Amino acid sequence: MWHHFMGGSAWPQGNGEDIVRLKRLLIAGAAAALAAMPASAGELSFWHAYAGQQDKVEFIDFALGEFAKAHPEVKLEVVAAEQSAYKTKLNTAMASGNPPDVFYTLPGGFLNAFVKGGQMYALDEELARDGWRDSFLESAISQTSKDGHTYAVPVDVDSVVFWYDKARFAENGWTVPKTYEELLALAEKVKGEGLVPFSLGNKDSWPATFWFQYLEMRLKGSGVVSAFVNGDPDATLGAEATKAMEKLAELAKQEYFPIGFNGMSDQEANMLFLNGQAAMMLNGTWQIGASADAPEGFELGYFAFPAVAGGAGDQSDVLAGVAASFGVSQKAENKADAVTLLKFLTSREVMTKYVELRKTMVTVKDATTETAAGPVLYDISNKLMKAAGHLDPFYDTAMPPAATNIYYTSLQGVLDGSLPPADAAKRIEDALRAK
């Protein structure tokens, strides 16, 4: 446009004053047109939850720094928050009709609530181009899709295992338990040494969910919450949910968790574990990154959640699911640049750096390399995950938000003794049945 208007040969013939007047009119018109363009052109608001933890901050600083070098034409207005505060902040922004353009979101029920409200931009067309969709693990893409459309790109896959210090176990002659009974016997030994058997900081409610979900998986099997979410009329948590809650209540009653654990943060629980005050911790594979500043001599090891005698579930099943994803708001005016940002964040190079810095498995094929992952994570990825009968997604992210809140409060109630196990199980089942 500019070449056509400003090139000398394009101007009509006439006297000098006419030409100057015409030039001024055209330039003024072009300036007015530019001024009328949306302010968001070339600019994007980008919200993420990678705050409050060193490995998360290192990753996002790297990724956004590289994006700025590769795409200087796109200006990002970045807003960062820690996970729990972020959820509230994003929900508030979406509810008020002022969503960010590109943002971090959890898969499952959290994302689906925005999809239901017509607030998410479907990425199907973009994913179909240049093999972008094929670069992801299909099992991961399915967790950010609903009714045949994909509304976010999955970033990482976390699995949950027990973590322990190999050196501490060897020193004390403790052996890795294979059954739940052996786990409880080990907890008694640890407690007898004046240590906390299992570190747990449940202030933000999600850390205790791993205990309940694994017990439910071992007792009843995988896929029970997914069945509710997928509208299966026969879906039920069953009597196993009450049994799982009873086992959880017993752990708290036996004082196998730290004093005041329901008011303790996950970071504080991690410090107890790394400092040797707690022997074990049931947590996600992000624990590898969180253990980077462990004291000298600490040797991080892992073991699978043990088999529960008489349980009907496949005892090799692993709690694992997409932990984070990024989506684009339907209201975003600059969707082309938004997609460019998503493609950059999920490129193999950036995702391999994610693995290297965060020691977490990613959803992009061939990005979880042995060199980037390190021996522990690579072992989990290639042995535990591959041998699993099923990978069961996180209950709390799969559930609709209202059910998730009831799930959290019910677990806290069982753990502090204020809610009977059977009542907690019924509350969660009723919440899952509610539409």
UniProtKB/TrEMBL annotation:
<protein>
    <submittedName>
        <fullName>Extracellular solute-binding protein</fullName>
    </submittedName>
</protein>
<dbReference type="GO" id="GO:1901982">
    <property type="term" value="F:maltose binding"/>
</dbReference>
<dbReference type="GO" id="GO:0055052">
    <property type="term" value="C:ATP-binding cassette (ABC) transporter complex, substrate-binding subunit-containing"/>
</dbReference>
<dbReference type="Pfam" id="PF01547">
    <property type="entry name" value="SBP_bac_1"/>
</dbReference>
<dbReference type="InterPro" id="IPR006059">
    <property type="entry name" value="SBP"/>
</dbReference>
<comment type="similarity">
    <text>Belongs to the bacterial solute-binding protein 1 family.</text>
</comment>
<dbReference type="GO" id="GO:0015768">
    <property type="term" value="P:maltose transport"/>
</dbReference>
<dbReference type="GO" id="GO:0042956">
    <property type="term" value="P:maltodextrin transmembrane transport"/>
</dbReference>
<keyword id="KW-0574">Periplasm</keyword>
<keyword id="KW-0813">Transport</keyword>
<keyword id="KW-0732">Signal</keyword>
